[in-house]
Write a structure and sequence with these properties.
Keywords: Cell shape, Cell wall biogenesis/degradation, Glycosyltransferase, Hydrolase, Peptidoglycan synthesis, Transferase. By secondary structure, the chain is α/β, with parallel strands linked by helices. Helix content is 16%, strand content 24%.
């Protein structure tokens, strides 16, 4: 039986179309969504560029032996997250934020170990060393850097999560985690489960 793919055919994007499409997905202006949020990561500047040249669909076979429990592939270079359901019928492709530097980037295999809707957030000890002015705890809500949902991974401190600051998507803007638009992480949250395979390349 041929698998049904839920992704629309890919069309070449330029920066203007990418931003317009992202705004349409979100439904409200990006700056309006980021108003009042705590900027827990480096300020976004004009010198930071989006990378959409490699934003394309992929197949799971080169990366996973099977789709048992579903699979998530995060491509750091193209700044995209791919998801395949266990039965292979559902495929999703989402733009993502990635870590600020290679030093903060982790690659390899892990899995989803916990799912949290309305996550709270605490900076890691290393984050607090670098940024002693940051709060030690941020409760769930519009100021939370993890957005509306978080998938906790087998690696300590690493998450796939949402963000209220939509400027970060498609950019090097995180301290190690992978960020998605809140609408996208909510969808992925519903599709993924504890035990879903995760590979960062």
């Amino acid at each position: 039986m041929e698998a049904k793919v839920t992704q629309t055919p890919f069309k070449p994007l330029n920066r203007r179309n990418f931003l317009a499409g992202a705004a349409a997905v979100i439904g409200t202006p990006a700056l309006a969504q980021s108003t009042g949020t705590i900027e827990m990561e480096r300020e976004i500047t004009q010198s930071v560029r989006r990378n959409i040249s490699s934003f394309r669909s992929m197949t799971w076979q080169p990366y996973f032996k099977s789709l048992r429990n579903g699979a998530v592939l995060v491509d750091i270079d193209s700044r995209a997250l791919h998801y395949w359901s266990e039965d292979g019928r559902t495929y999703k492709l989402y733009p993502s934020s990635i870590p600020l530097s290679e030093e903060l980037t982790r690659r390899g295999r892990t899995r989803v170990t916990r799912k949290v809707e309305g996550p709270s957030w605490s900076p890691t000890p290393n984050m607090l060393k670098r940024n002693p002015e940051w709060p030690a705890f941020v409760p769930p809500g519009p100021d939370n850097p993890l957005g509306t949902h978080a998938l906790y991974l087998g690696w300590k401190y690493y998450r796939i999560h949402g963000t209220h600051d939509t400027r970060k998507i498609g950019r090097r803007s995180s301290n190690g985690c992978i960020g998605l638009y809140n609408e996208h992480i909510a969808e992925l949250f519903g599709l993924a489960k504890v035990g879903t395979q995760v590979l960062l390349i």
